[in-house]
Write a structure and sequence with these properties.
Layout lengths: L2 H19 L28 E3 L2 E5 L4 E12 L2 E11 L4 E11 L5 E10 L5 E9 L5 E10 L2 E10 L15 E11 L4 E5 L1 E5 L2 E6 L3 E3 L7 E2 L3 E5 L3 E5 L2 E6 L2 E10 L5 E9 L3 E14 L11 E15 L4 E10 L4 H4 L7 E11 L3 E12 L11 E13 L6 E12 L5 E16 L5 E16 L14 E15 L2 E5 L3 E14 L37 E14 L2 E12 L20 E9 L3 E9 L6 E11 L4 E9 L13 E11 L4 E10 L15 E12 L3 E10 L9 E10 L5
Subcellular location: Cell outer membrane
Pfam families: LptD (PF04453)
Keywords: Cell outer membrane, Membrane, Signal
């Protein structure tokens, strides 16, 4: 016997072995006949049964038709296929035998060894029944009967999983539900079970009394799959969502959370889809003890109602106009973290109306912020009521180029802080030209006029941001020329490289910056993304003045499977006017620090990006940031490192130094199994940030888990540990077991 024949026989034996253990849900050897292409019209007063067969016999005495050899019958959209069919025309009974397949107009297919039907080809009794649903699930039973729109099955099983492996051999489904009795309502597209039990990987597990599940794409009301979690703070947690389908476009999910160590909580989510958009409203409420939001809260606590509200929506009123908004509120600063809902340290509620045209933009936006940070005053949080922004672009009919005008107004109030109002109008003109030698030259002219009003400036904790109280105004003007010269050449036989020197001149007259309140231009730092920006401040409230020249080079290399993109640059201030940048951001001297970015990619397997800022005097790394992705989609490692060594005055809270390490990854340990993990470590010490509580190596959080994922089942076990206390959100371990079934729940 040769090797190929031995391998073939072995694979066939494996298939037969698998089939023997899972015959009830396996595919059958025949398929139903396809629908008739052009069925003959029936007389108005008669019901016609069309059929074909290899051999046909008629017995006049009993008025019986016996068809054999690939028999196919059609009536009113119902289709039947079998090896032999006996049709008693007097009683209307149709008995089909031998690899029977019956399909209804909805696309569901019933298979059986022996089928007894009425001549409607719909109602009847089937032995060794298999129903393959049009939606993808399947039902199998020792015996089944159909009457009208309802199947009744005895000793049945249901699964939505594949029953064959990648080689086409039968396999046990990842999960199935067995029951003493099953009722499948084709009109309601729902399966009801009596005496049900869940089987995972062929092993019986949980009993499921009074279970039902939808089979179509519309879903239906019912209990969803539970979650089980254990945490140090709340103890064992059992989550059992119940889903209400109010209408095809509206639903409600109520989720009780039962804890072993604290009182239960109730969570709800309402979702709706309208003709113009969609919205959702969710929230959670409980009664529990809370402690002050400090790192070491002590033992004092008080009991109160606690919860959160989260709502969002967007509506497209017409092709140009839309309205969107969100509400995010919580009763206290530790609730979201304690109940493992979110780790955001600020919650922002917004409302926006905007119009987007081909060359115009208009928006009215309002927002409010709730802080969850330790020792952060809620009274200092801004409330915008509102911001109005209008922009218009058009071609310059005189000199060519592109013109953009902008009108903007903003009012910010605080319950216990500085209030600021702002309005400005700006104009920007850009003209791009190519020289005969291939240089790309862009000319820019910019002008803006601002009016500000502020009061209670002394309540702003950072003096640099206050500005002068009362009414203030300023004018801004800037001229710039930006020159790029792309040089492209070949590398070897199949590679190319691109070298693009870049030079920029910017001139701006002196501007009244420090007299103006600073609300949106605080987090300033020189980096590769803003090196050539007209204004290197991030917002509108500060504008860089003086004259400067900026120079740098972009580099690109493309080889088979390898790409490199890099840039590096620096700027020099031509004017001697005192700068307004804080020391340490890279722009505080006439000569700036050196900034750059390098990205290296090897096929789809490796991607490494390095961003840096080098001190112009000591060549020390003031910013060192590395992000790396290594591996395939199934197995990969994510690494991130950031160190900000800027030595900025600690009173400027937006620019504090820090150092951290992030790592994550996933390892595929089988076709369906994988292990995953992630960690965040704070490497900041007192030398880098005197206000930091870290000691140079302080883990913040890590997560390790194992997961199983196939075509119909997600199973995961996760261990997470938090290393920081914040009020009653205590550090400790959390374990989460999660199941997700296709066509059975979430």
């Amino acid at each position: 016997m040769n090797a190929k024949r031995l391998i073939w026989l072995t694979s066939v034996a494996c298939c037969w072995s698998a089939a023997a253990s899972a015959q009830d849900l396996q595919n059958r050897p025949v398929a139903p006949p396809p629908p008739q292409a052009n069925p003959a019209p029936a007389p108005a007063d008669q019901q016609v049964v069309d059929f074909t067969a290899d051999q046909l016999e008629y017995f006049n005495e009993t008025d019986t038709v016996v068809a054999s050899g690939d028999v196919r019958m059609f009536r009113e959209g119902n289709r039947l296929r079998a090896a032999k069919v006996t049709w008693n025309r007097k009683t209307g009974e149709v008995r089909a035998e031998g690899n029977v397949a019956v399909a209804n107009p909805q696309g569901d297919v019933a298979y059986g060894d022996s089928v007894q039907l009425t001549d409607t080809l719909r109602d009847g009794v089937v032995q060794n029944l298999l129903i393959v649903l049009q939606s993808g699930g399947r039902l199998a039973a020792d015996k089944g009967a159909r009457s009208g729109d309802v199947y009744t099955l005895d000793n049945a099983a249901y699964t939505a999983c594949s029953v064959v492996d990648s080689s086409g051999c039968p396999k046990e489904p990842s999960w199935k539900i067995t029951a003493v009795k099953v009722v499948y309502d084709t009109k309601r597209q729902r399966v009801f079970y009596k005496g049900a039990r869940l089987h995972l990987f062929g092993l019986p597990t949980l009993p499921l009394p009074l279970l039902s599940n939808p089979t179509g794409n519309q879903g239906g009301s019912g209990v969803l799959v539970p979650d089980i979690k254990f945490s140090r703070v709340n103890g064992l947690e059992f989550v059992l969502p119940y889903y209400f389908q109010i209408a095809p476009n509206r639903d409600l999910t109520l989720t009780p959370h039962i804890y072993s160590d604290v009182l239960p909580a109730i969570e709800a989510q309402y979702r709706a889809l309208t003709s113009t958009g969609a919205y959702q409203i969710s929230g959670m409420i409980t009664d529990s003890r809370k402690q002050p939001a400090t790192i070491n809260p002590g033992t004092t606590s008080d009991r109160s109602l606690r919860g959160y509200l989260d709502a969002s929506g967007r509506f497209q009123l017409d092709p140009n106009w839309d309205i969107s908004g969100s509400i995010r509120l919580t009763t206290d600063r530790t609730f979201l973290r304690r109940y493992d809902i979110s780790r955001d340290d600020r919650l922002r509620s917004t409302i926006r109306v905007q119009r987007i045209g081909d060359d115009s933009y208009f928006s009215v936006t309002g927002w409010a912020t709730q802080t969850l940070r330790i020792n952060d005053s809620q009274g200092q949080q801004p409330i915008a009521v509102p911001e109005v922004d209008y922009r218009r672009r058009f071609n310059d009919p005189l000199l060519g180029g592109r013109v953009e005008v902008q009108l903007n107004t903003l009012a910010i109030g605080r319950t216990d802080g500085q209030d600021t109002q702002r309005a400005f109008a700006s104009f920007r003109w850009d003209l791009r030209r190519l020289t005969p030698w291939g240089q790309e030259v862009t000319f820019t002219a910019f002008g803006r006029g601002d009016v500000y009003h502020s009061d209670e400036n002394a309540l702003s904790p950072t003096v640099l941001y206050r500005g002068n109280p009362g009414w203030q105004s300023r004018a801004i003007g800037a001229l710039a020329v930006d020159i790029r010269w792309p040089l492209i050449g070949s590398v070897g036989d199949s590679g190319t490289q691109r070298i693009t020197p870049r030079l920029q001149f910017v001139a701006t007259p002196p501007i009244r910056n420090l007299a103006i309140p600073n609300e949106d231009a605080r987090a300033i730092e020189l980096e590769d993304s803003n090196l050539f920006a007209l204004n290197r401040f991030p917002g509108y409230d500060r504008f860089e003045d003086g004259a400067r020249v900026t120079y740098g080079v972009d580099y690109g290399l493309a080889l088979p499977g390898i790409t490199v993109d890099a840039n590096i640059g620096q700027s020099y201030r031509l004017s001697r006017r005192p700068e307004i940048f804080p020391n340490g951001v890279g722009l505080s001297g006439r000569l700036s620090d050196i900034v750059g970015r390098t990205t290296v990619r090897f096929r789809d397997f490796v991607s490494v990006t390095h961003r840096y800022r080098i001190d112009k005097d000591s060549f020390a790394l003031r910013r060192n940031e590395i992000d790396a992705t290594i591996g395939s989609r199934q197995t990969y490692v994510l690494l991130g490192y950031l160190k900000l060594n800027r030595d900025i005055d600690t009173s400027i809270e937006d620019l504090r130094d820090r150092e951290e390490l992030r790592a994550g990854g996933r390892v595929q340990i089988g076709r369906y199994w994988s292990a995953f993990g992630s960690a965040i470590i704070d490497l900041t010490d007192k030398k880098e940030d005197p206000l930091s509580t870290a000691d140079g190596f302080q883990p913040i959080r890590h997560r390790i888990g194992i997961a199983y994922t196939d075509d119909c089942l997600d199973l995961g076990l996760t261990w997470r540990r938090d290393y920081q206390n914040t009020g009653d959100a205590r550090k400790g371990n959390t374990f989460l077991l999660r199941l997700s079934f296709k066509n059975l729940g979430r």
